[in-house]
Amino acid sequence: MSALLQVDEVSKSFGPVAAVQRASLTVEEGSITALIGPNGSGKTTLFNLITGYLSLDSGRIRFDGADVTGAKPSALYRRGLSRTFQQARVFAHLTVEENLVVASGFGWPQLFGRRVGRADRARAAELLEDFRLAPVADLYASELSYGQRKLLEFAAVLMSRPKLVLLDEPTAGVNPILIEMMEQHIRRLNAAGITFLIVEHDMNVVMRLCDPVVVLDQGQEIFSGPPDAVQNNPAVLDAYLGA
Description:
Helix content: 25-40%
Structural class: alpha/beta
Strand content: 25-35%
Largest sheet: 6 strands, mixed
């Protein structure tokens, strides 16, 4: 496998607080890579740096062979890098189907003028079926359950047929049935060629799903390796017990 994402010595401070300190990370093409660490270790900040929602103080980021340091989220999305958030971000006053159409890059005039192409509507219909959201396609997103909103956001980031998807706590706050469904979707999509980088607190999910596992502590990588090795690594145990 080759590196799809390469993060080199990235740093970010908020005033006197160093959230990320010269952190490096490699995500191999075709992998399901986990990014874990105790609370406050810098995971979400690193996600925001990678996806352009925060600017770097220093360091470089390469994606799919190109230097994307400083690129905006929209530019990264068009290149094939998309993400979800800890709290699902959906358009509450659009229908479920309209959320997917907007995610495909159409603006409001096209959406409400019904000038969306047949291929994009077909893609939306396919994803609605895959994620078992077809029965609620005409409901407003505000009417969905929390778990359904998580599924909708996941489906929406797939409209662009991305190469790399960053999932921020995909199973947080959802029931065991939905957790199993999320895992099935990730495995299926990974088998179809999509690479994943996942922040996840549920270690059972991490152990079942991810390889390799990258551990962050105090804004720095302290371990990267297979899931069976992470549980007995002294540095990892010290970071979690110390937290």
